[in-house]
Amino acid sequence: MSYCRLGNMDSDVYMYLIAENPAKLECCACALHPEGRCVKLNSRASAVGHLLCHIEAGDRVPQYAIDRLVEEIREEFRKEEDQG
Ligand SMILES: [Zn+2]
């Protein structure tokens, strides 16, 4: 499942959930990585931070990718609250 893809008009970033571990994400062919490799992100919160770094660096990051991550973080908090 990807949040945004390279090659889309509005995105310089390709970020997706790691299939084997859906709590973690990967920024593939990351422009912030010195060798342009994939960067692993241990949580959605760190993924949001990573996307903000891309924006700061002048990369195009679609707003919907950030919105979706933030929404999923909210859902996680709601679930934790429900469990008490
Ligand atoms: Zn990146």
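qc> The chain has a mean pLDDT of 93.
qc> done
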